[in-house]
Amino acid sequence: MIRYSANITIMMTAARKAARSILRDFGELEKLQVSIKGQNDFVTMSDIKAQEIIHYELSRARTDYGFLMEEGKNQININDNDYTWIIDPIDGTLNFMNGIPYFAISIALHHGDKIIAGVIYDPVHNDFYWAEEGIGAYLNDQRLRVKSKKTLDKSIIALGIPFLGRGDHQQHIKFQKAVMSKVAGLRRFGAASLDLAFVAAGRVDGFWEFGLSPWDIAAGIILVKEAGGLAIGIDNKEDPLITGNIVAGNVNIVQELQKILNA
Ligand code: IPD
Predict the structure, then answer these.
(1) pTM higher than 0.85
(2) Which domains does the chain have, with CATH numbers?
(3) Residue whose CB lies within 8 A of the most ligand 1 atoms, among 22, 216, 221, 245, for a mutation test
(4) Residue 88 Cβ < 6 Å to ligand 1
(5) 237 CA distance to ligand 1 centroid (A)?
(6) Separation between Cα atoms, residue 244 and residue 219, nearest integer Å
(7) Which end of the chain has fewer CB atoms < 10 Å from its terminal CB, N or C?
(8) pLDDT digits (tens, 9 = 90+) for 39-81
C-alpha cells in the first residue's frame, strides 16, 4: 500500500473536489444541455469554478505558497526559491467542451528551479497520475516506467497540432511529415498534460509540442522524469517551462525526435 506524502495528499484532495464540479458540467455538455451559443461562457465558468476550488483547498493547506494558474495573470520567477503551485483546472478544454472524455486537472509544485511534485487527474476514467521527486511516478497505486524502445520505427508518438491563431503551421507540417515517415503511428489526443502522463505510463513512446504554457506541462514533466524518461526542451538549451517547447520519451526516442525537430 502506497503512503502518500502530505503535499501529494493535498494536491489529490484539491483535484478530487474540483473534479466533482467538472464532471457535473461535463454531464451537461455531453447531454447537450448547454446551447451552442452559451457553450464558451459555460466552459469558461467551469474552468474558473474548478480553479477556485483548487485555489481554496491549496491555500488553506499551505498558506505561504504562491500560484501560477491558467485562469489568472499571476507570474512566477522560475528561479524563485518560493514554493509555487502551477495549475491548469481543465487541460483539454476543447475536448471537454465537445463531450470528448480526454481532459484532466493538472497541479504541480515548483520549488527552486524545478518541479518537485505533480498530479494529473483524468476524472472521467478516475485515473490519478502522480509523481514526487525521488519517489517515482504512479498511476493510482501502480508504479510507472516509460517504454524502452530504442528506435522510432515501432513507436507511437503523441503530438500537439497548432490551430487557428496559434503556432507556425508550415513548420508543423514539415516536422509532422518528417516524423510520420519514421514511426508506427502518430496521435493527437488534445490535452498535453495527459499526453505526458501517457508517456510516463508507457502508453505512448514519445510526445512533442511547441508553444505550450507552463500549466499544460509542469506536472507532466515530473511524471515523465520520475518514470525514468526525459521531458526537456526541443532544443537542449531551452527550458520547456519558459519556452513551452517540449519533447518527452526515453532518452533514445527524445534524441531521435530532437534530431528531426531541430533540423
Ligand atoms: C491545450 C491542450 C492541447 C494543446 C494546446 C493547449 P487547454 O490546453 O493542452 O493539447 O495542444 O496547445 O493550449 O487550453 O485545453 O488548457
Answers:
(1) yes
(2) 6-143 (3.30.540.10), 152-261 (3.40.190.80)
(3) 216
(4) yes
(5) 24
(6) 13
(7) N
(8) 788 788 899 999 999 999 999 999 999 999 987 656 655 556 6
